[in-house]
UniProtKB/TrEMBL annotation:
Presence of the UniProt keyword Ribonucleoprotein in the record: no
Organism the protein comes from: Methanothermobacter wolfeii
Lineage: Archaea, Methanobacteriati, Methanobacteriota, Methanomada group, Methanobacteria
Protein name: Uncharacterized protein
Segments crossing the lipid bilayer: 12-33, 40-60, 112-130, 137-158, 178-198, 205-225, 231-251, 258-276
Keyword vocabulary terms for this entry: Membrane, Transmembrane, Transmembrane helix
Length: 393
């Protein structure tokens, strides 16, 4: 919605706006990470949290102009607001935190669910460990968040019911976990968590709960849960980077603090160099031939009937041309989808199938035979577009 709003206001193409938004999104995420870490553990930790986050492989994900990136900007602010809401003089923090939680629910439900779990589990751990909690403020946070999100979700649930189609699991081997964060960052974070266990401050408990919960959730496939392990692990980046940064807060070398700052300077150069390499490795998710197909639909498609194709090309088609596609939208929340394999794989479909599914176009690889009831209307190096001859409208 943000991208479309900017497109409408400026008249600039969607992909130009997306390229502009990419560094802005990444900057805002790093700024949010650094700000919250600074508020919790001081300026040096805040600075290092941003630097460490840039060096991880997850920095690539920060560059994507997607709803998840907006939610990840809000996520640390929400947890920080919860931490402050546990104080006796919390002021307006519970309302503001609940507002942030509601925004996440509206923007990216997975981020909101993880945040809500961290809040609830942290509350339980703080209560069991004898730390002060403010149950009234926790209720205010959740109530405000659910009330804000209900304005959008409640009418949809009443009309369509609750719809969620979980994607297939993509497990991550345990030995690959350090690779996503970086080996040095993993060692520093483990040291920081060890110090946090000895301190056991309220903020330390929340960071420990956050990291441990996300780590265990990423192994959910072992219990039969459908999880994308690397996507889930992304949400542990903030506590991992923050705990790594805390290592240097009270460190002294030969009883001299300036040697620590020299080490920080060298580490900053090392991690920023790694971050530059990560960013430089980014490749466009949409190929030129996919864009060519999308532009063809913009000027030649009927914008009514459905395109049956491989899922990968469909977001570009929808974004550029607004032509309906067979996936029916974002897969987990799609109300209705089409068995696309019979149109692009087996060709085992009938005229009645075409009319029921309202299929008007089929996209195949250029070396595939012509599907039934269709004729070729466009081709490029990688794709062939066929117009279905039986009306799907």
């Amino acid at each position: 919605m943000l991208l479309l709003l900017i497109v409408k206001i400026t008249g600039i193409s969607l992909f130009t706006v997306s390229r502009f938004i990419q560094p802005v999104m990444a900057f805002m995420i790093i700024l949010s990470f650094s700000y919250v870490a600074e508020r919790l553990y001081g300026g040096l930790t805040g600075f290092l949290t941003g630097v460490f986050s840039i060096s991880s492989l997850f920095f690539l994900r920060m560059l994507y102009p997607i709803p998840e990136s907006l939610a990840v900007i809000i996520l640390p602010l929400t947890v920080y607001g919860y931490c402050r809401s546990m104080d006796p003089d919390s002021g307006a923090f519970p309302i503001i935190t609940g507002f942030f939680l509601g925004l996440m629910m509206l923007t990216h439900p997975l981020s909101a669910s993880i945040t809500l779990a961290v809040i609830l589990i942290s509350t339980g751990v703080l209560w069991v460990s004898g730390r002060g909690i403010n149950g009234r403020n926790v209720i205010i946070i959740m109530g405000t968040g659910f009330l804000l999100s209900a304005a959008w979700y409640l009418p949809l649930i009443i009309k369509y019911g609750f719809i969620f189609r979980s994607p297939d699991s993509v497990p991550l081997n345990l030995k690959d976990y350090p690779a996503y964060f970086g080996s040095l960052l993993t060692v520093l974070a483990a040291t920081g968590f060890a110090f946090a266990i000895t301190r056991r401050d309220k903020r330390d408990i929340i960071m420990l709960v956050w990291a441990l919960f996300v780590l265990l959730l990423s192994f959910g496939y072992l219990l039969g849960l459908k999880v994308l392990s690397n996507r889930i692990l992304y949400f542990a980046l903030f506590p991992v980077a923050t705990m790594a940064g805390t290592v240097f807060n009270s460190m002294k070398i030969r009883n001299k603090r300036w040697l620590v700052y020299l080490m920080v300077f060298l580490l900053t150069f090392f991690f920023l160099s790694g971050g530059y390499k990560v960013a430089a490795s980014a490749k466009p998710m949409v190929s030129e031939t996919e864009l060519d197909v999308s532009r063809w639909f913009k000027y030649n498609g009927d914008h009514v009937t459905v395109v049956a194709s491989d899922y990968h090309i469909q977001p570009a088609i929808v974004a550029v041309s607004r032509q309906p596609v067979s996936a029916g939208g974002y897969a987990p929340g799609s109300g209705r989808t089409i068995n696309v394999n019979k149109y692009i794989g087996t060709f085992n479909y009938t005229g009645e199938d075409i009319k029921r599914d309202r299929v008007g176009y089929i996209i195949l690889a250029h070396d595939t035979r012509t599907p039934p009831y269709s004729r070729m209307v466009y081709r490029n190096r990688d794709f062939v577009v066929y117009r279905v001859l039986i009306s799907g409208t």
